[in-house]
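Hi Q.,

Before the meeting this afternoon, I wanted you to have the 2-acetamido-2-deoxy-beta-D-glucopyranose prediction in hand. No need to reply - just skim if you have a minute. The sequence and ligand are here:
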Amino acid sequence: MRFSITGIAVTALLTTQSVLVSALDLNPDDPKSIIAAAKVLSDNIMEMYTGNKSGGDFPGRFPYPYYWWESGAVMGALIDYWAFTGDAGNNPAVTQAMIHQAGDDRNYEPTNVTRELGNDDQSFWALAAMGAAERKYPDPPADQPQWLSLAQAVFVRQTPRWEPEYCNGGMRWQVVQFNAGYNYKNTVSNGLYFQIGARLARFTGNETYAKYAERAYDWLVEVGFVNGEYKVFDGGHIEKGCLDTSYNQWTYNAGIVLAGCATMYNYSAPGPDQEKWRQRTEGLMNALDVFFVWGTKDVMYEVACERDNKCNRDQRSFRAYLARFMALTVQMAPFTQDYIMPKLRTTAIAAAKQCDGGDNGRTCGMRWTVPTCDGSFEVGLLGQTLSALEVVQSTLILSAPAPVTATTGGTSKGDLNAGMTGLNYTGLRDLSKDPITTGEKVGAAFLTLLMGGVLGGFAWFMVTDRI
Ligand SMILES: *[C@@H]1O[C@H](CO)[C@@H](O)[C@H](O)[C@H]1NC(C)=O
Ligand SMILES: *[C@@H]1O[C@H](CO)[C@@H](O)[C@H](O)[C@H]1NC(C)=O
Ligand SMILES: *[C@@H]1O[C@H](CO)[C@@H](O)[C@H](O)[C@H]1NC(C)=O
Ligand SMILES: *[C@@H]1O[C@H](CO)[C@@H](O)[C@H](O)[C@H]1NC(C)=O
Ligand SMILES: *[C@@H]1O[C@H](CO)[C@@H](O)[C@H](O)[C@H]1NC(C)=O
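Predicted structure with the ligand bound:
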């Protein structure tokens, strides 16, 4: 038996298509059909969620072996789901999760997750908070942490992790020394920092965030993780000056950097600065082709692992974020629409077709390039379902309200001191008064002299604090 979406959507499908092949056959021209499919997929996800079941996990957690970061990614997706569809059914669970996982210090470093805390993990929660502020997701009561201040807190936590002594800058992947990957600097951590900085700049109008963000983008280019053709690579090790590049191209990394540039483009005043970010956005957009050329044209696939069916649990979710960030890019840089929308629409149709499997007839497989559910449910069902949800709902982007800012209707309250608890540093520098100098940008030696002592002390403090 095929799962049927709703009477309305099925009727709509029957009138536009001669044969109803599968219940999640999606008509991207019909918002009702998209909304109905997105509801099925978000319900699939909430059925896996144990964070609000009695005897289940803490709020904001999916059961082991799903990592903490992926829950943050889910919350970000569900906030967009609410914003794009108007369905507030998941909001109580989402709000509860977002606040609980912020932790006692309201910074998305809850002590329970120290062992799995990478900068990227923390940033996925910050993205959800940033999205909540931009999409006017209902604000928590005043005595609870506020969405904007949570995103600011993460940015304040991460900025002193910038480390010029190795690879001329960049943050490490991991926050704590005992985690594997502490010696790795990668695109996802620095790219998310870049994107969050860009979005904070746009929301608050505070140039300081834009300057820190730009430093991160410049570094990604300098170290070669974003190359001259705008290909986006994974990372490198500090022992090698980060020059032992891992050339894997992951969908999410490309999307993270793309949406960061699109946001900087949107934030910049018309002129040379805006033109610079426009060119970068366009370059990164065109370089997305690598993810859309296998099997079926314009159907997204995970080039680094999908052809030989080696995508792991985390990697099965990555296409979700490329879809999310392509949609955000359309809003921030509308000139990208003609390139992006056909890809999202074609991919959404294909993704919906993967979601008619299992006993309930609506479980999602992994491979959108094959015509029916591939039945691979064992490795990372949450991630592949999330990927389907995000690409399906992204096709609603042209009718979704634009992300707000503090001056265009945003209500979320910020706090420049958020995130400072337990940190031994004076906070972000006001870069509008005290700019990052050329010497700081390019000179590793100079930077080591200037900041090495402070940062070294900070790193030591942070590590011992957590062990
Ligand atoms: C968990 O959250 C979902 C979505 O908000 C809701 O439908 C469900 O009733 C909640 N379960 C409990 C036990 O609160
Ligand atoms: C951390 O673990 C404790 C129990 O050990 C629990 O009460 C608390 O809710 C957990 N915190 C988070 C943020 O999950
Ligand atoms: C910035 O984003 C807004 C909201 O989507 C959009 O209306 C505006 O055209 C964008 N600015 C530029 C320069 O494209
Ligand atoms: C911008 O942010 C910086 C760093 O937090 C702060 O020092 C500065 O006062 C802010 N500027 C404004 C206008 O709020
Ligand atoms: C904080 O940093 C300053 C300057 O590096 C240092 O002198 C001081 O000992 C540090 N305090 C703590 C508690 O680590």
